[in-house]
Amino acid sequence: DVKVTQSSRYLVKRTGEKVFLECVQDMDHENMFWYRQDPGLGLRLIYFSYDVKMKEKGDIPEGYSVSREKKERFSLILESASTNQTSMYLCASRLRSSGIQHFGDGTRLSIL
Amino acid sequence: GENVEQHPSTLSVQEGDSAVIKCTYSDSASNYFPWYKQELGKRPQLIIDIRSNVGEKKDQRIAVTLNKTAKHFSLHITETQPEDSAVYFCAASKPTSYDKVIFGPGTSLSVIP
Q1: Taking CA B44 as the corner, what is the angle to CA B43 and CA B47, rounded to the nearest 5 degrees?
Q2: What distances in angstroms separate CA A70 from CA A34, A58, A74, A80, one per listed residue?
């Protein structure tokens, strides 16, 4: 069974801090994704990576960056956290030959 | 780019009735259409998917239909049960591994016992 693990379920940070959200998958999937989930707005794609060291902007990349140095790990970075980045963040991975995304449990991030 | 719309945003049905959620997409190159279910406080999980070479797919009480000409697809849940209560997301993606998956805004389904 595919396992996608996000490092924290809940995280509280202060405005201006640099924040790292980590995601690890154990199934050798090529593709990995970061989404933000807000009420009424669904799942909005922040960044995705189709392979190691590869990244593509999603629909809302402003204020975020990502890192994919190893195949199993995809990190989301908030360079200088702001209160409007308070949200639920979901990571997902996908095998290239399959359309199926597997999600982590999410990180609920609060920026104070 | 691709845009996926989903209706209704909320849906309440009596237990045992059917529920239908509809989605439209804009990019005719999209060929894979999954549906995800997200229960409260849990991760989204795939419940059914359909590819563009198929018009309909069924899995027990759940079915999905696809109309490529009209660029819309629908989720049908029959004999609804309280455990079907959740948020349902439709999505669309294109064939290559370099393409992102675009989700609809979600439908909150409540099944009233």
Answers
A1: 135
A2: 16, 20, 8, 24
Please tell me which of the candidates A40, A101, A105 has its beta carbon nearest to residue B105: A40
- Reading the block at residue A69, the tokens are 């140095």
User: Which of B33, B94, B98, B107 should we substitute to test contact with A (largest number of A Cβ atoms within 10 Å)?
Assistant: B98
Do the Cβ atoms of A45 and B100 come within 8 Å? Answer: yes
In a 10 Å sphere around its CB, with 0-12 CB exposed, 13-18 middle and 19+ buried, how is residue B80 labelled?
A: buried
What whole-number distance in Å separates Cα of residue A107 and Cα of residue A5? 10
Q: Which chain B residue is nearest to residue A43, measuring alpha carbons?
A: B103
pLDDT, one tens digit for every residue, chain B (113 residues): 788 999 999 999 999 999 999 999 999 989 999 999 999 989 999 999 998 888 999 999 999 999 999 999 999 999 999 999 999 999 998 876 567 888 999 999 999 99
Quick one: closest CA in A to B92, which residue?
Answer: A99
B82: helix, strand or coil: helix
Residues in Cβ contact with A73 at an 8 Å cutoff, skipping those fewer than 6 apart:
A22, A23, A24
Inter-chain contact A103–B44, Cβ cutoff 8 Å? yes
Q: How far apart are the first and last CA of chain A?
A: 37
